């Protein structure tokens, strides 16, 4: 098997307590960026109404950051050269705060999209750096649990961030939702500055190193799984609010149901983090997603809709940690390049899913977007079933 090797980054120089605190700070960072990225999902209807655009067009507020993040993630580590990764993370989170505050004050949809473009740069940069940081912060035995904790920011953002943003939007208006995540980003930047140790790069990472990983068959399979699973999920999830409203669920209950979805996602994240074989976990995850999205595509009452929403959250909560383990297992000697490739693919899929969902929902409605999501996930299930898994463990 072909391998791509980076210069080792060196041993952990902090004690266990300081390492755990640093991991928590990174988890808070992933929480902040994912909350910012996904915030329009909980505010889609009021945001579109206020700025005079359709729900499909408003979905561009999710699509655009995903496109930019997909382009940024593979490039930024190389462009940053020998900049200390702690300094770079703090700068990116401060930029995220500024973009959130601009979004809160945006006079029109064009200005909002401009701010969301900057958000995409921050998302791509943060994930390219954060996804593979656990080995530099904690001892080897704690790496799997710490990696799951870092990725739990995704699920916790669903539990707290998106529902809280939806609730703030219902109570005080959608602009206050963006203002709140801007303040959150400022707090997270302070935590990173205080708790992270110096993180000098081993050497500048060239974009060619990231692209070269695609010559490894198991890496290509992992990237394909990311593209199918995440595109299918976001084609549907970007428009989850209209899905719930179609089932007769009132506006006031949406934030509570997103909370239930997120709680299930946190459980799914940590359960998947405990799985010793990522391939088996992904087979189960994909099967549950097909069940949930396919079931939701059929018109139903509130009770079955809520049950399927919880299954959806439980299954999708494990996608990030298992697909990341797959990619890094396939390229164990190149963790930063692997993380950059994983992040680029993940955010490209977010953008593709939101864009495809917007086109479908404006054309044929929410049932069509759920069917598209279920079909893409079914393809991922097939790919996972017939593919050989990575030979090593992260």
Quick take:
The protein is an all-alpha fold and 394 residues long.
Describe the secondary structure blueprint for this structure.
Layout: H1 16-51, H2 55-58, H3 60-79, H4 85-105, H5 109-130, H6 134-137, H7 143-172, H8 174-195, H9 207-212, H10 217-237, H11 240-246, H12 251-274, H13 278-297, H14 302-316, H15 319-330, H16 335-363, H17 366-386
Helix pairs in contact: 1-3, 1-5, 1-7, 1-8, 3-5, 3-16, 4-5, 4-8, 5-16, 7-8, 7-12, 10-15, 10-16, 10-17, 12-14, 13-14, 13-15, 13-17, 15-16, 16-17
How would you describe the overall organization of this protein?
This protein is mainly alpha-helical and 394 residues long. It contains 17 helices and no strands. The radius of gyration is 19 Å and the shape is globular. Mean pLDDT is 79; it is low at 1-13.
The helix/strand class is mainly alpha
State the CATH topology: Growth Hormone, Chain: A
- General shape: globular
Give the helix proportion (percent range).
over 70%
Number of domains: 1
Q: Please tell me the overall pLDDT.
A: 79
Give the number of DSSP strands: 0
Sheet with most strands: none
Distance between the termini: 16 Å
Question: Compute the gyration radius: what is it?
Answer: 19 Å
């Amino acid at each position: 098997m072909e391998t791509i090797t980076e210069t080792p980054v060196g041993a952990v120089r902090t004690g266990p307590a300081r390492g755990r605190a640093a991991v928590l700070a990174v988890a808070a960072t992933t929480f902040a960026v994912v909350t910012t990225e996904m915030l329009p999902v909980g505010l889609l209807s009021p945001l579109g109404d206020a700025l005079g655009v359709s729900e499909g067009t408003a979905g561009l507020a999710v699509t655009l950051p995903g496109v930019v993040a997909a382009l940024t993630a593979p490039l930024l580590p190389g462009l940053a050269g020998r900049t200390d990764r702690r300094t770079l993370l703090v700068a990116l989170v401060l930029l995220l705060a500024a973009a959130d505050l601009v979004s809160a004050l945006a006079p029109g949809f064009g200005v909002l999209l401009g701010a969301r473009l900057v958000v995409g740069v921050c998302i791509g940069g943060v994930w390219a750096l954060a996804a593979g940081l656990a080995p530099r912060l904690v001892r080897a035995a704690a790496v799997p649990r710490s990696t799951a904790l870092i990725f739990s920011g995704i699920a916790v953002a669903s539990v707290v961030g998106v529902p809280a943003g939806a609730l703030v939007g219902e109570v005080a208006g959608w602009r206050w939702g963006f203002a709140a995540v801007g303040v959150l980003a400022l707090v997270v930047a302070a935590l990173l500055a205080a708790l992270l140790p110096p993180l000098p790069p081993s050497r500048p990472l060239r974009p060619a190193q990231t692209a070269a990983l695609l010559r490894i068959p198991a890496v290509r399979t992992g990237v394909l799984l990311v593209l199918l699973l995440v595109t299918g999920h976001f084609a549907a999830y970007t428009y989850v609010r209209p899905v719930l409203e179609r089932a007769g669920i009132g506006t006031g209950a949406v934030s509570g149901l997103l909370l239930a979805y997120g709680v299930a996602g946190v459980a799914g994240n940590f359960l998947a983090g405990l799985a010793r074989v990522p391939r088996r976990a992904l087979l189960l995850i994909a099967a549950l997603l097909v069940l949930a999205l396919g079931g939701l595509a059929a018109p139903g009452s509130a009770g079955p809709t809520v049950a399927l929403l919880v299954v959806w959250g439980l299954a999708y909560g494990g996608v990030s940690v298992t697909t990341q383990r797959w990619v890094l297992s396939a390229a164990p000697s190149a963790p930063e390049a692997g993380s950059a490739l994983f992040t680029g693919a993940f955010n490209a899929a977010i953008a593709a899913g939101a864009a495809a969902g917007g086109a479908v929902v404006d054309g044929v409605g929410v049932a069509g977007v759920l069917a598209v999501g279920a079909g893409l996930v079914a393809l991922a299930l097939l790919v996972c079933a017939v593919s050989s898994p990575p030979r090593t463990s992260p």
